[in-house]
Each structure stands twice: as structure tokens, then as C-alpha cells.
Amino acid sequence: MSQNADQAEIAKFDEDASAWWDPAGPFAPLHAINPLRLDYIERHAGPLRGRRVLDVGCGGGILSEAMAERGAQVTGIDLAEHSLEIAGLHALETGVEVDYRAIAAESLADEAPGEWDVVTCLELLEHVPDPASIVYACAALVRPGGQVYFSTINRNARAWLFAIVGAEHLLRLLPRGTHDARSFIQPAELARWSRRGGLSIEDMTGLQYNPLTQTYALSEDISVNYLMQATRPEVR
């Protein structure tokens, strides 16, 4: 199958790959929100220790390592190979065990369907040509009774103002050109794709940034950044 990937997007992430683990670098927001993402996952999934977890679009491994440190057996996949190299090197330095693979989610779904207790796909969907295909793959990869976690950016005027004008141009939290507002995804769209993939939507939660305190927090407002938790129903 042809890869569901935008080579220009991959090139952007690989260009900054050496800075993945710099907490003040271009991926600083991911370092800042990672504790919130991790706590959100464990709040809904329960303790990750001993669980098989797949991190789709793992990049440099920020979330993958954090989940492994919580005791999960983590596999991280991505198509940005320089980013994967950095992830692997950092794991060697820290002694954290993560299995990194350069493979598309759709290909892995054909190879190993239903193999994971938890599947995470955070900050990836807005960077691929066919996000619905990734959602279907994640639904296929999780075992019955397992959980899938997505995060992305809503598509509306407020999201454009905050995520692009604010974050990229005014506050410079992200490099300019990180996002294309046309690729943002409305919660209803993500929910529809998830249900078509056989998932049951359990929760949607917003993620907000306060420029005065320079801190992030989870909230009920899903108008800009949001996370979604879904479950693959048990087979009866």
C-alpha cells in the first residue's frame, strides 16, 4: 500500500530531529504538555504498568519514554526516520526500553491487528493526508476492550487564531509553518471516523494554554486543542 504520509511534513520533523529532547527547543510545547497527556491516559486506562502500548507517530519518543517509565511495554512507530534515530539514541542514554519501528500504522494493522492494550496517536492526525485512515488503523490495532487516545486541533476561526496566529507568530511557541489550518479536524469528524472504525467514544477533553502564566491545563473547552478517548468494545 502507498504510505499515508506527507513527505514535506516528514522533512520538517526530521530537520529538527536533533532538538527533540531540548525542552526549550522547537518541541518545547510537547515537553510541557506531556505530563498532562500521560495523566489523562492513566486516568482513563488505569496504571500502564505491564500493559502493551503502541504510540503511533511517536516522533522523538517523548510520550513513548514517559509511558515506558510508567512500566508499559511500549512500541513507538513513525515514518520520520531521523526522529526515530534520535528516539532510539535517547532511550539508550536513559536506559528506558522502547521498541521503535519505521512503519506506517496501516501496515502494522495488517501485520499485527488487535495486539495492543492501549494505542495512542497524539498530535499526528493534522499532519497526514488521510487522517481517517490512521484512525481506522488505530481501531484495528487495539485489542477488544482496549483503549485508543487521539489528540489534535479543532478546525474553526478560534483554533486558527490561537494555534497559528498566536502559537506560531505572536508567542513563537512553535516554528512558523508547523500547522496548516486546513488540516485541522473537528471533533465531530474524529468521532465519526472512530465510530466507523468500530470504536466507542468515551471522553473528549480540551487542552488550553495560558499566556500569562505560560502553563497548560486540561479543560472542558474543546474549541482549540482537544484529546479524545475511545474504547474498542469487547466481542460478545
TrEMBL record:
GO BP term, example = methylation
Q: In which pathway does it act?
A: Cofactor biosynthesis; ubiquinone biosynthesis
Q: Which GO terms describe its molecular function?
A: 2-polyprenyl-6-hydroxyphenol methylase activity; 3-demethylubiquinol 3-O-methyltransferase activity; polyprenyldihydroxybenzoate methyltransferase activity
Q: Which reaction does it catalyse?
A: a 3-(all-trans-polyprenyl)benzene-1,2-diol + S-adenosyl-L-methionine = a 2-methoxy-6-(all-trans-polyprenyl)phenol + S-adenosyl-L-homocysteine + H(+); a 3-demethylubiquinol + S-adenosyl-L-methionine = a ubiquinol + S-adenosyl-L-homocysteine + H(+)
| Residues at which S-adenosyl-L-methionine binds | 37, 57, 78, 122
Q: Which InterPro entries match?
A: SAM-dependent_MTases_sf, UbiG_MeTrfase
> PANTHER family annotated for this entry?
METHYLTRANSFERASE (PTHR43464), UBIQUINONE BIOSYNTHESIS O-METHYLTRANSFERASE, MITOCHONDRIAL (PTHR43464:SF19)
Summary of the function given for this chain in its UniProt record:
O-methyltransferase that catalyzes the 2 O-methylation steps in the ubiquinone biosynthetic pathway.
Which protein are we looking at?
Ubiquinone biosynthesis O-methyltransferase
Give the originating organism.
Spiribacter salinus M19-40
